[in-house]
Design a protein that fits this description.
The complex is a heteropentamer. Chain A is an alpha+beta fold. Chain A contains ten helices and eleven strands. Chain A has a domain of 166 residues: 2-Layer Sandwich (Alpha-Beta Plaits), CATH 3.30.70. In chain A, a hairpin with a 5-residue loop joins strand 5 and strand 6. Chain B folds into two domains: 175 residues, Orthogonal Bundle (Fumarate Reductase Iron-sulfur Protein, Chain B, domain 2), CATH 1.10.1060; 335 residues, no CATH class. Classes of the chains: A alpha+beta, B mainly alpha, C mainly alpha, D mainly alpha, E mainly alpha.
Chain lengths: 273, 538, 329, 145, 189
């Protein structure tokens, strides 16, 4: 039912109306059973104001390194694999320099740099274009800076996909469960349904339990996660000491994923407890 | 009780601007002069054995009702509830959605709220509820029920003789409730009390005794036709010799008697005569069945049947094979919906076949009566007529669908086909005022008297308004139709609202355009006016 | 006055159900006895009314012809609006009953820029259609409570009805449409002067009643929750003729049920019978073929007519003088 | 009472009466939902209880879940303090489904059966509610028993 | 003409008030229907009235072109002549215009030297009323003429025949037959 519905909504173009009217209705109709005081954040949760990641490309030397990172993410989040680019759903993936940082490439740059796969994920921008265009507020900016995707609300209009300059969003053209190995489904995390848009959520479910995103954990220090609003954080110290670039900064979305691409002299910075 | 055209001086300056708080049930009908017809004469009712025959006047306080009039009415309602499913159903299922409210020409033109079809029906429904439904008996006014008082009876009479049974409301009703059916019942009830109108009871008595509404006696009919023949000879140089009451003719021709007497119907009659002569049709007129129309239909079902019986009886006596009917509105409603049921089966007749074209009129195989517009359309389609439409060139014609033939039969395209072949300038009125949505002339069902002229002018206003539209936009100067009452009353309507527009029957235009064998060159039309009006003057 | 009477009547009914259940604990009366009575009145009353209509014959063939008749073969007949065959009538009736064809035709006479125009007036049609269809869908949806295992078509209807997947529990579109249209139908009776003038208490009452039913249903579904399994238990108890009153169903349910029972019981006594009546309306359900096939009036009786013989006796001399043939010389 | 057009009218009436009384016929010989009033007490006595009392959960569980979702996904608040003061992690898949570990059993399980399997589909099916939660949320593996 | 420009400014509201007065002059039940601003009309009479009064008002400002004014007045009066009005009621719609204008221009009149102009205008309105009376009478006469014509056309053939056939001894019930009592030779078309 739901898949047809989403298709229908998309085609009929009533998504916007349904979204706006629907939200209003839902809010109007809901007679809260929960008291605000009844809910609280987990005591052990990681908290921050503006989560970000610094990726040291020098440390992602081999394909295996990278695959370990992407696999970690996709397996715990039940991201399906249909083995074709048309239906591909990606939360974290790779691209060449040229495609990752268009306009920055030049013919004299090192060959290996040109060929190097760059690890890409949602930039959790400060000014996310996707949030602005979402008619149902299914995607929104959390207080901690995560650009969150609420699958319950997504009506599959794909405005966000058109708006995102980084290609960080994927649409479920097919039932994602058909692209998963039933034996390897992570029972603790939901799948999605056909007809919704999904993307990296910065492992909000892990942060709530006090652990860092899966990609960071699996990167052997190549990815550094932290609160960019905290001057004492490790990530701030790295950004202060290294030259970093971001994807398409000229668009003004203020991405929060930074890339360290030059120099092999980067020293491991001790973790902050 | 009737309001005269006077007002006290102090009333002049302060007309009451406040609508009454009272609902319609508590607002008795006010008999306003020039809106109702005179009461029936006792002697006319006696001729046809109607009960409670006496002279009476609606304007007078005392209607000289029989002692037990309430009983008579209630008994009458009961009787009819058992005889007519339509009546019982239409009393029960109206939801008062108001879709019909602004469809009635009398309401549009006059504004009296009780002329909304729904309220006109509610007048009778309120009585029905009081005496025939449990909720009405128990809850009274809350359930919309009302005692049958003299005021209520008068209201019923007043408004049921302000309905032309045109069925326009029925077209828009989601349940097909037909005010015409309800009005018929209401009128039957009033007739049980002798409360007919003079304009209806006179023609009924005439028709019963003499064969036609106008009371034309046999020799008057023939001599009247002689006049047409004289005129036709003047126009065409051809002397036509029609026959009357001739046994063994193939076809009996029946037309409303208005065509024999009242202009412009007479020109239509001339058209028939010319057409039949040119075809060499083996037909005859009857002086006994000399009326196609049926004013009995405006009193009671039984009376209508009694008057209608003459047509088949005469066809049988004369031994004709089938019947052609002339241009008339309610005549055809009666033929289409009632005649065969009342007075059939017409098994002594044959299924109509045009002797000229050989066309079988399949749609008339039981009644054996063919509409002349069907007959003529078939002739034209088969190329049997030589027509010169240019002879009607000084006319810019529009077509009025008569309510009875439109909504009680559905003869819409045949006359238009004929019209397009006999004249060159034909303009339709606005879409929502023609075909099944056509507006009544405002004078049907025996309302075409003179004393109610104001009512007629009001009721005809929506029709006239549409005619005025085509007159102003296309210069239309002729309003054609296939109804004798239209021909008799639209003239008056046009004279008041849209001067310069004349009225004619379809076959007048056919007569004009028909090129007859051996005719002289025509210089006049059937009205004896110069054929090429303007050129002749210049 | 007529409005207030109907309004307070419905309010009183709501209060009596509330008091009956909340204070007097008459759950069995409101949950079992009254529903049985209501459904009995409804069914028998409905049948009785239809049979009563059926006991009156249709003496004449009186269809309202809204289009070209069947005549010469080359003239295009309007087979639906002026049917000459049963199939035409079936289509005509179907259009009427399912799509409110006649109301769709509605026009309004109005003044626009100083000119009189006959404009389209589709609001009544639209609201009427929305009202009846949403009512039907809601009615059908409720069968999930009366059937042990719910047939798939009812599930499909529910799925379509909650298509927009808004809110929790999912919002039924028909709930909104019904409330909206019934409100419109009420407001037009208040604000359109003609319609107000013709409206009786009997017109407002069912509107208030239906509004009450819809509103209590919506409240129950979205706000004052009741134990739906308990409701099904009660409903199933009724239809398997082993009535039970489960504990703890909220009073709002009994109000809802009571109003429905009233609507059912009121139905055969009122104009709501138009539901059956529309199918019996002779102006719509008849074939216009009375010139082709003789229609029989069961009570047709011989009448007195002025015969030709009497006529000739009156005028014989004059006829002879005018050269008109006569039977007797 | 003679009925005119009786054939058509009777066909119509039979259809009408058939529809009106259809629930009576369809359910002939069927049994009602059986609910064991003791079930709830028993569960309690066995130390098993839901986050809120059954009387609240029955009609309101969907509302609760909806608010949980809002709280978790949108506000990032994961802890729920129940009315009895206990704290729960708001997770449909990981908290609710811990106990409601089988969604496919028959209705009796919930209402009648002492085996205390708090199933979902039983109830939902009986009142023809088809939630689409499991389009995404992974139902616990059905235990074949 | 200071007054004229003031009137032109206030045209819309004056016409609206005037229109309302006319509508309210309808039989109480009817005016009930017509009162509602947004859907005033289930009555084509309204078309002629609203069009008519605007034209008349313009003509007043322009100084009453006899021919035009009469035509506009005719459109309104012709309808009211066949509706349920006494003659005084039928024509009463003209006079309130004076009151409405004075009401609309209360301030302006008080503060300036308009009284002469106002008086002149009011006498023009009086002229209008007189013309309306003429039209009303013409319409009523027309109705009677129509009645007569109708009888004439209905009986023309009879009259024609009356020259030829002997009507003696015929006692006809036909209404028009009264006219048969015309003596021979009197009938000439």
């Amino acid at each position: 039912m739901s898949m047809n519905r989403r298709e229908f909504l998309k085609i009929a173009g009533i998504s916007t109306i349904a979204g706006i009217g629907g939200t209003a209705l839902a809010i109007g109709l809901r007679k809260g059973v929960l008291d605000a005081a009844q809910t609280a954040p987990d005591t052990g949760a990681l908290t921050g104001k503006r989560w970000g990641i610094a990726i040291d490309m020098n440390k992602l030397k081999s394909e295996e390194n990278i695959k370990r990172v992407t696999d970690a993410c996709h397996s715990i989040h039940n991201v399906p694999d249909f083995s074709n680019t048309k239906d591909e759903v990606k939360w974290i993936w790779t691209e060449t320099f040229e495609h990752s940082f268009p306009g920055q490439e030049h013919k004299f740059m090192p060959e290996d740099m040109k060929r190097k796969p760059f690890l890409l994920l949602c930039n959790h921008c400060d000014n996310p274009a996707c949030v602005r265009v979402c008619p149902t507020k299914a995607t929104f900016k959390r207080k901690d800076g995560i650009v969150m995707q609420d699958m319950h609300r997504c009506i599959g209009c794909r405005f966000c996909m058109a708006a995102c300059p980084f290609g960080a969003r994927s649409f479920n053209y097919r039932d994602p469960r058909t692209g998963l190995n039933p034996e390897k489904i992570n029972p603790e995390f939901p799948t999605r349904t056909k007809g919704v848009v999904e993307k990296c959520t910065f492992c909000y479910e892990r942060l709530a339990k006090g652990i860092k995103p899966a990609c960071v954990e699996e990167s052997n220090g190549a990815l550094v996660f932290g609160d960019l609003d905290d001057p004492a954080s490790e990530i701030r110290r790295i950004l202060a000491s290294k030259y970093t670039i971001r994807r398409k900064p000229e668009l003004g979305t203020e991405p929060n994923i930074y890339y360290i691409i030059g120099g092999n002299d980067y020293a491991v910075v001790p973790e902050i407890k | 009780m009737a309001t005269k055209f006077t007002a006290k001086p102090d009333e002049l300056s302060k007309i009451d601007h406040k609508p009454p708080k009272k609902g319609w049930m508590d607002t008795p009908a006010e008999f306003k002069e020039h809106t109702f017809c005179w009461g029936a004469k006792g002697k006319n009712l006696n001729i046809v054995d109607f009960p409670n025959a006496r002279d009476w006047s609606p304007a007078e306080e005392d209607w000289k009702l029989p002692e037990n009039w309430q009983e008579i009415v209630l008994e009458g309602i009961k009787d009819r509830l058992g005889k007519y499913r339509s009546f019982k159903l239409f009393m029960d299922i109206c939801v008062r959605c108001g879709a019909c409210a602004d469809k009635c020409h009398f309401f549009i033109g006059g504004g009296d709220p009780k002329n909304m079809p729904v309220l006109r029906a509610e007048i009778l429904r309120s009585i029905y509820r009081k005496y025939f439904t449990a909720s009405g008996k128990m809850l009274g006014k809350i359930a919309g029920a009302r005692e049958l008082t003299l005021d209520v009876l008068k209201e019923l009479w007043y408004y049921y003789y302000q309905c032309t049974e045109c069925r326009r409301c029925s077209v828009f009703c989601p349940y097909g409730i037909d005010q015409a059916e309800i009005t018929m019942m209401g009128r039957e009830l009033t007739n049980l009390l002798g409360l007919n109108t003079d304009w209806i009871s006179g023609p009924v008595a005439n028709c019963y005794m003499k064969g036609n509404h106008l009371g034309l006696e046999p020799h008057t009919i023939t001599s009247s036709v002689e006049f047409f023949l004289d005129d036709i000879e003047t126009i065409t140089g051809i002397r036509i010799k029609p026959t009357f009451n001739r046994k063994g003719a193939e076809i009996l021709f029946v037309t409303p008697s208005g065509d024999l007497f009242a202009d412009p119907g007479t020109y239509t009659a001339m058209g028939y005569l010319m057409l039949f002569h040119e075809l060499g049709l083996d037909y005859t007129w009857s002086t006994y069945a000399s009326e196609g129309g049926n004013f009995g239909f405006f009193t009671s079902n039984e009376m209508a049947k009694r008057l209608n019986a003459k047509i088949y009886a005469e066809a049988k006596r004369l031994g004709v094979k089938w019947i052609i009917g002339g241009e008339c509105g309610h005549m055809w409603r009666v033929i289409n919906q009632y005649m065969d049921t009342w007075n059939g089966p017409a098994d002594f007749l044959e299924e109509p076949v045009s002797p000229i074209t050989g066309t079988k009129f399949e749609n008339a195989k039981s009644t054996k009566m063919v509409h002349i517009a069907e007959f003529t359309a078939d002739l034209i389609k088969n190329g049997k007529l030589k027509l010169d439409p240019a002879r009607n060139d000084r006319l810019k014609v529009t077509w009025h669908d008569s309510c009875n033939t439109a909504r009680g039969m559905g003869i819409l395209d045949e006359p238009r086909y004929v019209l397009r072949n006999v004249c060159n300038h034909f303009y339709e009125m606005p879409e929502d005022t023609i075909r099944e949505k056509t507006f009544c002339c405002g004078s049907g069902t025996g309302l075409n008297a003179s004393e109610n002229m104001e009512l007629r002018m009001r009721g005809g206003f929506p029709r006239a308004n549409a005619v005025k539209y085509v007159r102003d936009n296309y210069g239309v100067n002729m309003l054609a139709n296939i109804c004798a009452i239209d021909r008799a009353t639209l003239n008056a309507l046009m004279e008041y609202w849209a001067p310069d527009v004349s009225v004619c029957g379809l076959h007048e235009l056919v007569g004009n355009a028909l090129v007859m064998t051996g005719e002289k060159e025509r210089t006049q039309d059937l009205r004896l006016e110069p054929l090429h009006g303007k050129e002749a003057e210049e | 006055m007529r409005i207030l009477f109907s309004f307070f009547a419905v309010i009183a009914l709501v209060l009596s159900a509330y008091a009956g259940v909340k204070i007097a604990n008459l759950q069995f009366l409101f949950g079992v006895v009254i529903p049985y009575i209501a459904i009995t009145i409804f069914t028998l009353g409905f049948v009785y009314r239809v049979l009563k209509w059926g006991s009156s014959p249709v003496p004449f063939r009186i269809p309202t012809t809204c289009g070209q008749q069947k005549s010469l073969p080359w003239i295009k007949q309007n087979r639906i609006e002026n049917p000459s065959s049963i199939s035409g009538v079936i289509i005509r009736m179907a259009l009427e009953a399912l799509l409110f064809r006649s109301l769709f035709r509605n026009l309004k006479t109005q003044l626009k820029d100083g000119k009189l125009v006959y404009g389209e007036a589709k609001w009544l049609w639209l609201a009427g259609l929305a009202f009846h269809w949403s009512f039907l869908i809601i009615f059908v949806r409720h069968f999930r409570l009366f059937l042990q295992s719910t047939p798939s078509f009812i599930k499909t209807i529910e799925g379509l009805d909650s298509f927009l997947q808004v809110g929790v529990p999912l919002l039924y579109m028909t709930d909104i449409v019904l409330l909206g249209s019934v409100t419109y139908l009420f407001l037009r009776r208040v604000f359109i002067p003609q319609v107000k003038y013709i409206s009786l208490a009997a017109d407002y009452f069912p509107l208030f009643l239906i509004f009450g039913i819809a509103a209590s249903g919506v409240l129950m579904r979205y706000f004052y929750k009741v134990d739906i399994v308990g409701v099904k238990e009660l409903a199933m108890g009724l239809v398997i003729l082993k009535p039970v009153i489960p504990q703890g169903i909220g009073v709002i349910f009994y109000i809802h049920l009571f109003l429905i029972c009233l609507l059912f019981a009121y139905f055969p006594l009122s104009k709501l019978m138009h539901m059956a009546g529309v199918f019996l309306s002779p102006t719509r359900n008849m074939v216009n073929n009375s010139r082709m096939v003789r229609h029989i009036n069961p009570w047709n009786y011989p009448v007195h007519v002025h015969t030709y013989e009497e006529y000739e006796n009156d005028f014989r001399e004059k006829m002879k003088k005018a050269g008109i043939p006569v039977e007797k010389e | 009472m003679k009925i005119y057009d009786g054939g058509k009218i009777f066909v119509g009436l039979i259809i009408f009466v058939g529809l009106v009384t259809s629930p009576f016929f369809f359910n002939r010989g069927k049994s009602n939902i059986v609910r064991d009033p003791k079930a709830a007490q028993m569960m309690q006595s066995m130390g098993l209880q839901c986050v809120e009392p059954k009387a609240f959960m029955l009609p309101n569980h969907m509302q609760l879940l909806d608010e949980w979702r809002d709280s978790v996904v949108r506000k990032g608040n994961r802890l729920y303090k129940a009315s009895d003061g206990k704290n729960y992690v708001m997770s449909f898949q990981n908290t609710c489904m811990n106990c409601h570990s089988d969604k496919n059993e028959s209705c009796n399980a919930c209402h009648n059966n002492l085996a205390i399997k708090h199933t979902c589909d039983g109830c939902h099916n009986s009142i023809a509610v088809k939630p689409y939660c499991w389009d995404c949320h992974i139902a616990p593996k059905e235990k074949k028993s | 003409m200071k007054l004229n420009s003031l009137l032109a400014d206030k045209k819309a509201s004056i016409l609206e008030k005037w229109f309302d007065v006319i509508i309210e002059s309808y039989p109480p039940d009817t005016s009930n229907f017509l009162k509602n601003q947004s859907n005033r009309f289930a009555n084509p009479a309204g078309s002629a009235i609203s069009q008519g009064i605007e034209n008349i008002f313009d003509e007043l400002l322009r100084g009453l072109n006899q021919g035009n004014t009469l035509q506009f007045l005719d459109n309104i009066v012709r309808i009211r002549a066949v509706q349920d009005f006494t003659p005084s009621q039928a024509l009463s719609f003209i006079f309130p215009l004076k009151r409405i204008i004075r009401e609309e221009l209360t301030v302006e009149i008080a503060g300036s030297q308009l009284s002469d102009e106002i008086l002149a205008l009011e006498s023009k309105i009086d002229d209008l009323a007189l013309s309306a009376f003429d039209i009303y009478m013409k319409c009523r006469e027309k109705i009677y003429e129509i009645k007569a014509n109708e009888v004439k056309s209905m009986t023309f053939r009879l009259l024609q025949m009356a020259n030829l056939i002997n009507t003696e001894g015929h006692e006809s019930d036909f209404k028009g037959n009264d006219k048969l009592k015309i003596k021979r030779g009197e009938v000439k078309k």
